[in-house]
Amino acid sequence: MRLGIDMDGVICDFNAGWMARHRDDFGSDLAAIDTEIKWDNLHTLCGFADMEAFWRWAQGSEDRPSVFRHLEPFPGAVDTLRELAGAKHEIVIITAKPDWAVPDTLRWLADHEVPTREIHFRHRKSTVACDVYLDDSPLVLPELVSRRPAATVCRMVRPWNTPLDGAVDVDGWPAFRALVGGL
Ligand SMILES: [Mg+2]
Questions:
Q1: How many CB atoms lie within 10 A of CB 134?
Q2: Which secondary-structure segment (H or E) carries 19?
Q3: Domain layout of the chain by residue ranges
Q4: b/e string for 11-36 if b means 16 or more Cβ within 10 A?
Q5: pTM for this entry
Q6: Please, what is the angle between helix 173-182 and helix 77-86, to 10°?
Q7: What is the band of 32 on the pLDDT scale with cuts at 50, 70, 90?
Q8: How far apart are the CA of 13 and the centre of ligand 1, in A?
Q9: How far does the centroid of ligand 1 lie from the alpha carbon of residue 158, in Å?
Q10: Whole-number Å distance between alpha carbons of 77 and 84
């Protein structure tokens, strides 16, 4: 099967990554606010005027890479993808990223030897046909459910998303592996 896999909030821990960068830059201690994170409210938690200002900071500079360069993978994420690829599933990476984040995203996938031959940078993820999708975005999940009715759409359960009719809740990588194995 073709497994369409999101990156941030699914394979890699974007929030822990930008918080660590924020701690380095501003001496903050934001780790405890994880459960307050909603979709697009990050700037209110860390002193930026708006999300545009947040992304300008996250983009990095000539002196250092963007926040997407040094994120930690979630436990079990890469190993599970390798198992699924070994079981002859196609790992299709589908990630919504601004242009400036593309090189660091490709470097990250190479660094972690993510087993894929297909990487899409798309905001409308339903344009990439897959049998199963795994995403955490409260904007993307409804789009996938409505545009890909024949597919199994999985919600990676996170504090910033909620259950959705037509989507299957997955609370981590072991659950996703089990779900794919049962299809
Ligand atoms: Mg995501």
A1: 24
A2: helix 14-26
A3: 2-13+72-182, 14-69
A4: bbbbbebbbbbbeeeeeeebeeeeee
A5: 0.93
A6: 20
A7: low
A8: 9
A9: 10
A10: 11
> What separation in Å is there between the alpha carbon of 16 and the centre of ligand 1?
13
- Which CATH class for the 2-13+72-182 domain? alpha beta
- Return the closest-CA partner of residue 6 out of 113, 111, 144, 110: 144
CB atoms within 10 A of CB 98: 13
pLDDT score, position 33: 61
Q: What is the Å distance from ligand 1's center to 182 Cα?
A: 24
Which residue's structure tokens are 């759409």? 153
* Cβ pair 133, 152 in contact under 8 A: yes
Mean pLDDT is lowest, of 10-19, 44-53, 90-99, 124-133, for 44-53
> Side-chain half-sphere of 108: how many Cα atoms within 13 Å?
25
For strands 152-156 and 167-170, give the pairing.
Answer: parallel
Neighbouring CB atoms inside 10 A of 137's CB total 21
pLDDT digits (tens, 9 = 90+) for 143-163: 999 999 999 999 999 989 999
Half-sphere exposure of 80 (CA within 13 A, CB side): 20
Please report where in the chains the tokens 């194995």 appear, as a residue.
181
- CA 135–ligand 1 middle distance (angstroms): 6
